[in-house]
Specification:
With 231 residues, this protein is an alpha/beta fold. It has a 7-stranded parallel β-sheet, with helices on both faces. Strand 5, helix 4 and strand 6 form a beta-alpha-beta unit. Helix 1 packs across helix 2, helix 3 packs parallel to helix 7 and helix 5 packs across helix 6. The longest helix has 15 residues. It is globular and about 55 Å long.
Length: 231
């Protein structure tokens, strides 16, 4: 992609009556004849909760991983009730402006994707605020994850399905959130789906559906499963 980082585009979730428009694989520098792997960022390629917690600490706040939630885990020191959700969202948006570049990479993710990219096209599909685009692209580039980046809003199934429809080989989708996995299952049921949760504190709290989506929280094992899936 060059020294400036991965190609980035923004997609929005369309109304039910509107067909989703996805960038062409060719425009992303990918060959349609190859398999396709679509992968999330937060808690898949990077330790989002850890990085967000470090950012909140600089503002005198605590992130207590007590439930599989975000704003409901933010507290003032010593407080028994979490901060207002609106305040939590403001800190979340500021994190993507000022702090997301410090996020730690999930163990084994770089090597696994490097091996996968030898066999398939790789697209990074993340739900993040619009102001995150440049910082996120730079973070990916700095950590050897310089693959095409798409920002999405809402369920990921429609955009993932539109991307996969262009590929002529097998496809796989990786995310930490059950709603996104379910959305892809609904829109593109032939796509192999994998759930991965990077943060060990979140793993026992994360809702899972192993009967519908394969859960693998270790990138070495996940990489091997993906390579087997795409052939």
């Amino acid at each position: 992609m060059g020294p400036a980082g991965p190609a980035t585009q923004t997609a929005r979730t369309p109304p039910a009556t509107e067909a989703v428009r996805a960038p062409s694989l060719e425009s992303l520098g990918l060959a349609a004849r190859r398999p396709l792997v679509i992968v999330d960022v937060d808690e898949v390629l990077g330790h989002f909760m850890e990085g967000f917690g470090d950012f909140l600490a600089t503002r005198g706040l605590e992130l207590r991983v007590e439930r599989f939630a975000l704003f409901q885990n933010i507290y003032a020191p010593g407080a028994e009730e979490h901060i207002a959700l609106e305040e939590g969202r403001r800190h979340y948006e500021d994190f993507f402006r000022y702090g997301a570049g410090a996020m730690r990479v999930a163990e084994g993710a770089q090597d696994a994707l490097r091996q996968i990219a030898e066999r398939a096209g790789v697209i990074i599909l993340t739900n993040a605020p619009g102001q995150a685009r440049l910082a996120r692209a730079r973070w990916l580039g700095r950590h050897g994850l310089d693959y095409p980046l798409l920002l999405n809003t809402g369920p990921k199934g429609p955009l993932a399905a539109a991307l996969v429809a262009q590929a002529h080989g097998p496809a796989a989708f990786i995310d930490d959130l059950l709603p996104n996995l379910d959305s892809v299952a609904e829109e593109a049921p032939h796509v192999s789906r994998f759930q991965h949760v990077a943060d060990t504190r979140l793993r026992p709290l994360a809702p899972a559906a192993p009967d519908r989506h394969t859960r693998i929280d270790d990138w070495d094992a996940l990489g091997a499963a993906l390579i087997e899936t795409i052939g």
